[in-house]
Design goal:
The chain has twelve helices and eight strands. It is 51% helix and 13% strand. Strand 1, helix 1 and strand 2 form a beta-alpha-beta unit. It starts with 15 loop residues before the first strand and ends with a helix. NADP nicotinamide-adenine-dinucleotide phosphate binds next to helix 1 and helix 4. The site of NADP nicotinamide-adenine-dinucleotide phosphate (NAP) has 28 residues, from helix 1 and helix 4.
Length: 279
């Protein structure tokens, strides 16, 4: 597991390209530049919507290119951040031999290394990553895996990129659908719990702004405690649960086998969906 950001920058002299400057691509560009992981004149950006790349030029001095071919030609490391359905058209007409020299880092959900290999060729160096929305605020969780053409040094380049905006774990690709169900969809589960708590407060007469503050700040506090404490989430939970108290009363429902089965079946559904959407 790569924790946080190391001072060592193993791609200092490399040129990095980002294709697709939407939510995720944009977050990665900002993280790379604000952590000074890459000099702005070594960062190349491309998006079909020019308005999405301009701010990175104006604010940080990143270089805009006008085609994917240019991006591929000019960079050593290429971050694919378009939607999965757009990848086929993006690489259409480009000879496979053109992909051998560049380290390709894909964040395309559900897009397997074998599918990317079909598009980019057997010699392409491909790292597949599954980040989550947390990267937008610097608290992302990203799982990474690679094909056999990628050296461990190249893999650590991908890890450094994503540790600019959170944490990374290495996993075999066979677990990527599980990762998708856990950490990819994961922020939504925590948002949902916050929604439920807010609604419970409101239904008992607390005004919305206060109910939202109670639920959201409790989530933040719990996350910080998990991050900063050496205790496990289970131990932390026990600390809040005094015998005969309110939390214990809530856990007569939440801790039941039925509730755990319910949650497990939700995760199973997400994994099955991820498998179905995989190409
Ligand atoms: N959001 C998440 O939580 C999350 C988590 C894990 C992985 N991902 C993956 O991250 C990738 C990006 O997601 P996102 O939410 O950032 O999507 P997004 O906001 O739609 O960004 C994708 C960008 O790529 C542009 N684009 C489309 N086709 C292009 C082409 N041929 N050449 C250049 N640019 C092109 C899009 O332009 P248009 O708007 O004009 O199409 C858009 O600006 C997806 O593959 C997704 O599966 C997302």
């Amino acid at each position: 597991m790569v924790k946080g950001l190391s001072k060592m920058n193993c791609f200092k002299n490399k040129k990095i390209g980002v294709v697709g400057c939407g939510n995720m691509g944009g977050a990665l560009i900002k993280a790379l530049l604000s952590h000074r992981m890459v000099k702005s004149h070594r960062l190349y950006v491309y998006d079909t919507v020019r308005g999405k790349t301009l701010p990175y030029k104006k604010k940080y001095g990143a270089r805009i290119v006008l085609s994917f071919e240019q991006l591929l030609r000019r960079t050593d490391i290429l971050l694919l951040a378009v939607k999965p359905q757009d990848i086929k058209d993006l690489v259409k007409g480009i000879p496979k031999s053109r992909f051998t020299a560049t380290l390709i880092i894909s964040i395309l959900a559900g897009t397997t290394i074998s599918y990317l290999t079909k598009l980019l060729g057997n010699k392409a160096k491909i790292v597949r990553c599954m980040p989550n929305l947390g990267i937008v605020v610097g608290y992302g969780m990203t799982a990474v895996c690679k094909n056999r053409n990628v050296s461990l040094r190249d893999l650590s380049i991908a890890e450094r990129i994503f540790s600019c905006c959170g944490m990374t774990v290495r996993i075999p690709e066979k677990y990527i659908n599980v990762v998708t169900a856990l950490s990819g969809s994961g922020p939504a589960y925590y948002f949902f719990l916050t929604e439920l708590l807010t609604a419970e407060g409101m239904s008992r007469g607390i005004k919305r702004t206060n109910a939202e503050a109670l639920a959201q700040h409790t989530a933040l506090g719990a996350a910080r405690l998990m991050q900063q404490s050496k205790a496990s989430p289970k131990e932390l939970r026990k600390r809040v649960t005094s015998p005969g108290g309110t939390t214990e009363a809530a856990f007569t429902v939440l801790g039941s086998a039925r509730y755990k089965r319910f949650f497990s079946s939700a995760i199973t559904k997400a994994i099955k969906r991820a498998e179905k959407l995989s190409t």
